[in-house]
Give the backbone structure.
Amino acid sequence: HSVIHWFKRDLRTHDNKSLSLASQRAEREGVPLICVFLISEQDYEAHLTSPARVNLEIETVKILKADLEEKLDVPLYVELVGQRKDLPTRIIQLCEKFGARHLFCNIEYEVDELRREALLIRRCADDAGIDFTVVHDACVVQPGELATKQGKQYAVFTPWYKSWLAHIRNNEGEYLHIYEYPSRNHHSAKTKFKDIYVSSVPDAPARKALTNEEKNRLQELWPAGEHEALSRLQRFLDEKSGRYKVERDFPAADCTSLLSPYIACGALSARTIVKSAMERNDGSMDGRCSGIATWTSEIAWREFYKHVLVHCPYICMDKPFKLDYSDLRWEYNSSNFSAWCTGKTGYPLVDAAMRQLRHTGYMHNRCRMIVASFLSKDLLLDWRMGERYFMSQLVDGDFASNNGGWGFASSTGVDPQPYFRVFNPVLQSEKFDPDGVYIKKWVPELQNLYAPAIHFPYERGGGEIARRAGYPRPIVDHQEARKRALARYREALGRY
Ligand code: FAD
């Protein structure tokens, strides 16, 4: 017999609740622990997972397999499964094949995944005689724990955050408990499951494959694995957290943690992050280092959006959180959309950010807000087009955070910026990239320009240089676009 832990977006050995519980169970029963990871090409297609993210995930699995097998004698079985609907059946078949009576996994909160787990729970109990344990792991405080005085889900971040902080403070032992590292399998596992040990991790499905050049570039930026994630966390706390509060909005300052790709694929747990941050901050979440306290609140945004997802699953079905905006009349101008995607809008900061995304799979948070506001308000393009494009490019693509960020910037989401607040892309550029350092890095056509021209060349005396370098003219007039957006948002709200 054996016990199985099913890896999904929890690709780590440290502080992994399901893995730790599965290991304890195996030890108690005196049977080996086996891990499985199934790659579904159809899942990647359905979620628009970017090739960058697929590649990071597969590289992370390779490291995980080596760690589990070499350090713990725990085999990790990896398989490509074509149809996502076959996943539950395949899991049950693997339990039968490996003689597992106990199956463990961490819960995933998106609608399709919840349905899949619900089906598997039924089939394990009714037909297969497998004891299936599904646990909360992705958040410090699990969805459903926090409610307003009226017993409802919070629709505003700040009161939710206060409640989240208080909840953790009052139950530190429970919420910040770090789960035990899995124990070593008995040597016999190695002989019994030797086929798994010698098997290799499959390559990415063809439609998600990267070229060698892309692979090398991305792996240099985002080296895979939980060891990298843990050392990035320490480096951030040591070197950057002190200036985070003041500099986090400046894309050229390099003062954020760059941890999002690791958190998204589960190479690092939210518990470990919050606990490590507290330990560096007088043991509390709002200690002397205001940088760490601010950072903790950003980590909490991720969690807030996951809670919202559980309470309002309709946001997984292409609907805005604020249903009032369901019928907003969007423009569907494909050449504007293509200019936005390729970083050729004539607004330098927007273009720099979109090119950073294409090149690195990542974009700075301030820039994500600016380009999302530009798409949904200046171009009046359906925010869902931007949301999907982001998923198809981001190395840290995460449904809840991406949907939440798009909802915020397009004013259609939970606790959004008000619809009449439209970022001025030129003023944002002057404020957050005053010397144009970030712009010059990603828009080489503007290398010979300086402030103020670099922020809006055709209007600020840099037109000739920009034209000669082939930099495009602005595709919209911001003031005109702003008026059009306000009118359409008011129309959707029935306020003419
Ligand atoms: P840090 O500033 O170091 O923050 C630490 C961690 O906190 C991040 O890694 C992330 O896990 C979390 N976090 C920080 N800010 C936010 C936020 N506003 N919302 C949710 N979580 C946050 N983040 C994703 O992880 N995946 C996405 O797909 C994603 N899409 C976004 C789309 C839009 C339109 C916007 C406005 C934001 C999006 N974000 C997304 C949030 C944020 O931009 C990134 O998490 C952040 O830029 C990652 O960089 P970092 O790790 O250096 O962040």
